[in-house]
Amino acid sequence: MGWEVLLGGMIAVWKRFEKFVAGLLFTTIVGFPILCFAEVEYVPYPVEKTGRVQDEPHIRIFGEIKKGDDKKVQTIIDLYRGQMIRKFGIMPVTLDSHGGDVDTAMQIGAKLRNAYAWTMVDMNDECSSACVFILASGVRRDVFSGGKIGLHRPRFDQEYFAGLSRVESEFLYGSLLDGLRSYILAMGVSEKVIDDMVKTPSWKIDYRDREYAETVGLVGDDPSFHEWQRAQDVKEYGEKHMKMQDLWVECYNSGIVSYAICDRLYKNHELTE
Fold first, then answer.
1. What are the residue boundaries of the structural domains of the chain, listed by start?
2. Is 204 helix (H, G, I), strand (E, B) or coil?
3. What is the CATH number of domain 3-220?
């Protein structure tokens, strides 16, 4: 089943409110419109190399997320995915956005998950509000040093929401949170992200760092993708080879011996558990 089909089912719970969902925004500060407009662009090889992931062709999403951006993302995937996955086997996507339209963010997320994206927030960049749902969609996710994610409650168009009865508003808001929670869980991220969003009013923002992102699964590999990738590697190289590779990684990460020693032990088949 494609992720876009699955997403369609998850958000159906509030699609009956379609004319109101158009007014559903994640904004950093209520009453202060985001002045920059979203840009979705394909970034080919840079002129100057930095030795980082961004040296490879990738998608860059920055500014406010607005309707139609999901179509831009799909166009870039259709045209350039081959170039973008050549180095890592997955497609790098950099994020620097204060948020925007949450429905569009989830549609982008579905397309990126289908394309095996590596979503990341670069050093000193920000991924807040609706952007978090794009970050969550990667089969691999990163928040680099100095990068931050911002959380707060979603909100509906204020004039419309004020016109609802208390019972109607409670039902509609609960349906919204149920849909967001289903999306986050389907992407392999902890629902604690939604719990923490709810704690912060929509007119404020709670910034979190990489350490927090690691605890909720916004950094690391998606569990299902990780297991699938392991199965692919075992199928191609064999269980014994993969276990030896695991031992090499453990040897290197231990910090007890050097890379050269681990490499020699690996080549001589002298690594043991």
1. 3-220, 227-267
2. coil
3. 3.90.226.10
